[in-house]
Amino acid sequence: MNQPEYSVVVPVFNSQESLLELFEGIAAAFGELNTEFETIFVDDRSTDNSWEVLKNLKQEHPQHIKIIRLSRNYGQHNATLCGLMFAKGEAIITIDDDLQTPPHEIITLVRSFEESSCDVIYGIPYGKKAHHFYRNLGSSVIKKSSRNLRNTPGEGSSFRLLRRSITDKIVQHSLFFVFIDEILLWYTDDIRFVEVAHVPRKYRRSGYSFGKLWHLLTNLVVFYTDAPLKIMVYGGLFASFVSFILGIIYIVKKLFFNVPLGYTSLIVAILFSTSIILFSLGIIGEYLSRIYKVQNRKPPFSIDTVIE
What is the 3-state secondary structure (H, E, C) of 75-129? Predict the structure, then answer.
């Protein structure tokens, strides 16, 4: 096969029913575009027969498929990052394995890419996503948090097209917790959004439970923002201010009105000293956060098997 113009990266987890249909849809899309492509399936240590299905697909389409199996389950974004490292195309498309984004929509991304010079193109579902309520709610919270805490567009999806130059930068990322959309925003703001179809899940339920969505949100806040530390700093500063005002009020009452203080003075003193300690811990936390980011060298994934 000639050098592929496009690479398609698919993180896979327990999707044995949809993999054949997904690849056939990808192949049909690029057949209509009349361009060379490769598909990289990254099995995130599925517990069903997904790996066997992928091996059969590889035997049937050796020119267009690479398959990778991770040593354990690392999560969707880590598996996607792994696939990006093996991609050879001048542009890389990422798509989920659940067929909720029809593979035919790849044509929409490619044509939009050919018409523009942007670094990243997101396929955003028009209308409401065909997810359960809690999944839509979780996605909305994550996007709004990103918009408000990091001043980002607040939009994104796992169906995206990346220019080669951007991919070469993000694959150097070494932080254990990976969130592709946040990493992309570090390297570029030249992003475009196009509307694509989003259909109900055909085979299995989503792997994102409420607990996993909450875990994802808390990791996003801790790893990609300093919001908790700022809350500590400003919260301690506010508590110090309130305690100081209360202290002044009670001192005035004692000096000019001879009001007995009793335990009130002790409570005010405790509140004031505690707020100062909290403020100081926030400052220390700022330094520890930066030291942690520098020292963290845990790899984002470990590969078990590669069949190219």
Answer: CHHHHHHHHHHHCCCCEEEECCCCCCCCHHHHHHHHHHHHHCCCCEEEEEECCCC
* In contact, 193 and 121? CB cutoff 8 Å: yes
pLDDT: is 189 or 26 the higher one? 26
Last residue of a domain, one of 174, 197, 225: 225
Q: Tokens for 50?
A: 């997904």
Sign of CA dihedral 47, 209, 15, 205: positive
β strands within the chain, DSSP E:
6-12, 37-43, 65-70, 91-94, 120-125, 160-163, 191-196, 303-307
Question: Is residue 57 a contact partner of residue 19, using CB atoms and an 8 Å limit?
Answer: yes
Whether residue 144 is found in the same domain as residue 15: yes
The tens digit of pLDDT for each residue in 241-270 reads 877 787 787 777 777 777 666 666 677 677
Q: Per the domain annotation, does 25 fall within a domain?
A: yes
Same domain, 205 and 252: no
Last residue of a domain, one of 164, 195, 225: 225
pLDDT at 127: 60
Q: Is the dihedral of CA 292, 296, 300, 301 positive or negative?
A: negative
Comparing CA positions, the residue from 54, 52, 59 lying closest to residue 11 is: 54
Using alpha carbons, select from 182, 184, 171, 188 the residue that is nearest to residue 81.
171
Domain that holds residue 238: 227-295
CB-side exposure of 42: number of CA atoms within 13 Å? 30
Same-domain pairing of 20 and 111: yes
Q: List, for residues 73-102, the tens digit of each pLDDT value.
A: 998 999 999 999 999 999 999 999 999 999
Please provide the average confidence, as pLDDT, over all residues in the chain.
Answer: 81
| 47 and 122 within one domain | yes
C-alpha to C-alpha distance for 37 and 3, rounded to whole angstroms? 8
Contact 236, 278 (CB under 8 A): yes
